[in-house]
Design goal:
Layout (H helix, E strand, L loop, with lengths): L7 E3 L6 E3 L14 E3 L4 E3 L7 E3 L4 E3 L6 E4 L4 E4 L31 E3 L5 E3 H9 L16 H12 L11 E5 L6 E5 L5 H13 L6 H13 L8 H13 L6 H14 L2 H13 L6 H13 L3 H9 L8 H13 L3 H10 L5 H13 L3 H13 L6 H14 L2 H13 L6 H13 L3 H10 L5 H15 L1 H10 L5 H13 L3 H13 L6 H14 L2 H13 L6 H13 L3 H10 L5 H13 L3 H13 L6 H14 L2 H13 L7 H13 L3 H9 L7 H13 L3 H14 L4 H13 L3 H13 L8 E6 L2 E6 L6 H16 L11 H12 L6 E5 L5 H13 L4 E4 L4 E5 L2 E2 L6
Parallel strand pairs: 15-16
Antiparallel strand pairs: 1-2, 3-4, 5-6, 7-8, 9-10, 11-12, 13-14, 13-15, 16-17, 17-18
Helix pairs in contact: 3-4, 5-6, 6-7, 6-8, 8-9, 8-10, 9-10, 10-11, 10-12, 11-12, 12-13, 12-14, 13-14, 14-15, 14-16, 16-17, 16-18, 17-18, 18-19, 18-20, 19-20, 20-21, 20-22, 21-22, 22-23, 22-24, 24-25, 24-26, 25-26, 26-27, 26-28, 27-28, 28-29, 28-30, 29-30, 30-31, 30-32, 31-32, 32-33, 32-34, ...
């Protein structure tokens, strides 16, 4: 709308038509806090500091005190440029040479280059970020380049030259100052190739097509593209176009290949459009590059369309195989197989690509069937194909088939070495065949780090931690994988202290731990509730400035959550920038273990608002939180949403959470009906939950029914017998208690003792129920008994349950006012729960116990669970 020509306006409030003015003549409303009579401009936003510039003839933003009008340039500049800018007539009456926005009317900050041309400040910054230091219009330098040239001159002087060129000179013309000079010849290595590029632009030869094509060849031959410096090559394409130079097929092959490496689809499309518009012939290498680019960018329809429009004579087996590979990498296995079956000619690479696709997609049987078809067509596999097949055997744990492939390898006379030898070694090790693995390992002519690590992994899996340690000590050069494998082995064998000991040895051996190492250690700390060790790992991460990504962040949240520090877990949670479903789920699980059901639900709702799709584990954490909080309606709502909204099939764990929720609130009949409606068979955990609910709500008959169902599934379950015995004891049926105990003894079912873990002075101590303890602990147990008896709170405090032993140890060794933290392997019994409340009051100490279900925080005679667990 031509604002200057506007004569009349209509008030939007009263509808009165009138001449252009700031205040309505009828109702008196202000039509705009800012009003320009010349531009006929109204605006209520005074923060813009708008003003009218008579020289420009338009309104500008930013305040008149911050700008001045240069009448020679015909535009407004910042006061900072008042005495320093070179005047160029009509300086801003053109488009920005980078983003092509009309500068005179642009709202973004504009600056003046030393040559006098104008450009957006943001565009200039982007140029510098991409190492572009020449004006796009005249190619003169946009900043002082003297230090850069001095550095290059020093590198040139330090580079030895062949004798014939020692005193050879070449004439150049400087584009900045217009003066000519002579410089010495120098080598075109990768570093100095960049200088050549810069000096070509600086000297005004950017329009020379021969130089530009040779420069692209220089980048390629010097390995510039291989070193990952791809953007410089793509920037050269723009420079050539600005200079009026049209790249040919050879140049486009390099550029399209670069887009494929970067997976830069937009630039790839732009290059393809250039190829079409300039009628370059898409065949041979250029066609291969285009297909590869679209395939790697996931645009298989585009890649397939290119081949469909070509003559059959132009499309060879390499191109079809490239397309099959693209479908495989896009996880479109069915499409890949359809295309593979239509191929008139298949190379060994074609077969291997399809087999590899099956293995990567988890279709291991299909890969073996394809191998049989391949052999039927008399195609001899190479090492790559055989390694793929052995990988399928490993995933299927098919030792016999793997051994037959080994026999085939020997029959064909192939040398078992390198990747093939390591694949065989990996097969035997992961299938638990240590003798065959060791025999293969000893026969390898050259043992690589991967060979040693595969053998070590085999010992860790099947040979026991002692044999694994012995073999680990024999490894001549241990890499990070070797150390991580050994650390993980200790963690899996519940050797917590040993895992940290070897971690310390790892650092003393000058091997820097990676994120995998730290995640293994954090999972170990979470497992045993070793908070101090977990904090130490966190401090190590901070001290070494290791970025906390989603994977490492999840491990930290899990550790703090399972160590009872939900506040620290949330602090880590807030610091993770890109939160995936695992991060959200870990935080919800931390809230659930603390019994903070509402916080877990709020987090779930926030997760949905952020567009993160929950998985089945998320709902396990959410339902567990509902169970701890006794939220029946919310539990049903999220359980139903699991299937109806997210199309996730509930697992036994989801059903277990619901059974626990309904049972804990006392809805026993509803719990039984829920179990009967389950589409899957109830397991031990379901019937155990029902038995615990029956004990809490004193339903002996239903407990007996649940016990019978449980024993049918697991006759040797000692926990079920003990729980039933306790239910009888609560009901005063001592004869039945005796019968259950006698039956348990007669059937020979071993009772698995519970254990408790406490961390003290960097060492993790384990206590087993009814085990012998030190004299100090016995004295503390007697002191506890004496104090509680004096209070006449409880008569029986002599029980030797593991958590009581650990707490007694903590009272002796922990500093005053510091919480006593214990991890208990089994669910805490009622007696111990009551005793812990009394101990916390008698000794004025906070006691934090994590059993296999949730956290209990005992302070001043009360528990955080409010006796609801």
């Amino acid at each position: 709308m031509p604002r200057h020509e506007v004569k009349q306006v209509i008030c939007s409030l009263c509808g009165t038509e009138q001449e252009v003015q700031q205040v309505c003549i009828n109702c008196g409303v202000c039509m705009g806090k800012y009003f320009c009579e010349t531009c006929k401009l109204f605006d209520d936003d005074t923060s813009k500091k708008q003003y009218h510039c008579d020289g420009c003839g338009i309104c500008r933003i930013g305040g008149p005190e911050n700008f001045f009008h240069c009448y020679k340039c015909g535009c407004c500049y910042s006061n900072l440029l008042k005495n320093s800018h070179p005047c160029v007539e009509g300086a801003m009456h053109h488009d920005c040479p980078v983003c092509f926005e009309f500068l005179f009317e642009s709202r973004d900050d504009v600056t003046v280059l030393p040559c006098g041309h104008t450009i957006h400040k943001s565009c200039l910054k982007e140029m510098r970020d991409h190492y572009q230091y020449a004006c796009p219009l005249c190619s003169k330098s946009v900043c002082d380049m003297s230090k850069v040239w001095e550095k290059f001159d020093m590198e040139i002087a330090a580079t030895p030259m062949p004798e014939p060129y020692l005193n050879k000179m070449v004439w150049i013309l400087c584009n900045d100052c217009g003066k000519s000079s002579e410089v010495q010849f120098h080598n075109f290595d990768v570093k100095l190739g960049s200088e050549v590029h810069g000096r070509i632009l600086k000297c005004g030869f950017g329009r020379n097509k021969s130089l530009n094509n040779n420069l692209m060849g220089l980048y390629s031959k010097c390995g510039k593209l291989k070193e990952g410096m791809y953007r410089e090559a793509l920037d050269l394409f723009d420079e050539m176009l600005v200079s009026g130079v049209l790249p040919d097929e050879i140049t486009m092959v390099s550029l399209v290949s670069t887009c494929a490496k970067l997976k830069d689809l937009e630039m790839g499309k732009r290059l393809h459009l250039y190829i079409v518009d300039n009628k370059l012939r898409t065949r041979g290498s250029l066609l291969n590059c285009l297909v590869d680019m679209y395939s790697k960018c996931g645009k298989m329809d585009k890649a397939h369309g290119l081949l469909s429009r070509c003559d059959e004579s132009e499309v060879d087996v390499v191109l079809w195989t490239s397309l099959v590979s693209g479908y495989v990498k896009s996880n479109k296995i069915d499409k890949a197989r359809q295309l593979f079956d239509k191929m008139n000619e298949r190379s060994l690479v074609s077969w291997t690509t399809m087999m590899s696709g099956y293995v990567q997609g988890g279709y291991y049987r299909e890969s073996l069937q394809l191998f049989q078809q391949m052999r039927f067509e008399n195609v001899i596999p190479d090492e790559v194909a055989l390694v793929t097949l052995l990988s399928a055997c490993v995933h299927l744990e098919d030792f016999d088939l793997g051994r037959s492939i080994h026999a085939f390898i020997v029959t064909c006379g192939m040398i078992v070495d390198g990747f093939l030898g390591n694949a065989l070694l990996d097969l035997y090790a992961k299938c638990g065949k240590l003798d065959e693995a060791l025999r293969t390992f000893e026969q390898l002519p050259c043992k690589s780090a991967a060979s040693w690590n595969s053998m070590l992994d085999g010992f860790c899996r099947s040979g026991g931690v002692d044999k694994a340690r012995d073999f680990f000590n024999k490894i001549p050069e241990k890499d990070i994988v070797s150390w991580n494998t050994m650390v993980n082995s200790y963690v899996k064998h519940d050797l917590f202290n040993e895992s940290f000991e070897i971690f310390c040895k790892m650092q003393s051996s000058n091997v820097k731990p990676d994120k995998t190492t730290l995640i293994i250690l954090l999972s170990s700390c979470a497992k045993v509730g070793a908070l101090n060790h977990g904090i130490w790992v966190n401090v190590y991460i901070e001290k070494n400035e290791i970025g906390i990504d989603a994977m490492l962040g999840t491990a930290l949240i899990d550790m703090y959550g399972k160590c009872g520090c939900v506040e620290m877990a949330y602090e880590i949670f807030t610091r993770i920038i890109e939160k995936n479903v695992f991060v959200w789920t870990a935080m919800m699980a931390a809230y659930a273990m603390e019994g903070q059901a509402l916080e877990a639900i709020d987090l779930y709702l926030e997760m949905e608002e952020r567009g993160v799709k929950p998985d089945n584990v998320t709902f396990i954490a959410l339902l567990a939180a509902c169970s701890h909080g006794g939220l029946v309606d919310e539990g049903y709502r999220y359980f139903n949403k699991l299937r109806s909204f997210y199309n996730i099939t509930p697992t036994i764990h989801h059903y277990g959470c619901m059974v626990d929720l309904l049972g804990r609130v006392g809805h026993l009949e509803e719990t039984v009906k829920f179990i009967e409606r389950m589409p899957i068979e109830p397991d031990v955990s379901i019937w155990s939950s029902l038995m615990r609910a029956c004990r809490s709500h004193h339903n002996v008959e239903l407990a007996e029914h649940a016990f019978k169902q449980l024993i049918e599934i697991d006759p040797t379950n000692d926990g079920a017998h003990v729980l039933l015995s306790n239910i009888y004891a609560d009901a005063g049926r001592w004869d039945d208690v005796s019968k259950v105990r006698t039956k348990l003894h007669e059937t020979g079912v071993p009772k698995q003792p519970g254990f408790a873990i406490i961390e003290q002075n960097g060492v993790v101590h384990e206590f087993v129920a009814s085990n012998l303890v030190s004299a100090d602990v016995r004295c503390m147990l007697q002191d506890i008994e004496r104090r509680l008896l004096l209070k006449q709170e409880l008569s029986d405090t002599t029980s030797q349950h593991s958590e009581r032993l650990a707490v007694a140890f903590g009272l002796i060794n922990n500093q005053e006012n510091s919480p006593i933290r214990v991890m208990n392997s089994v669910r805490m019994c009622r007696d111990c729960h009551s005793v812990m409340k009394l101990i916390s009051q008698a000794y004025d100490r906070e006691i934090v116990i994590r059993d296999n279900y949730r956290f209990h925080r005992f302070t001043d005679g009360h528990c955080s669970c409010k006796d609801y667990w």
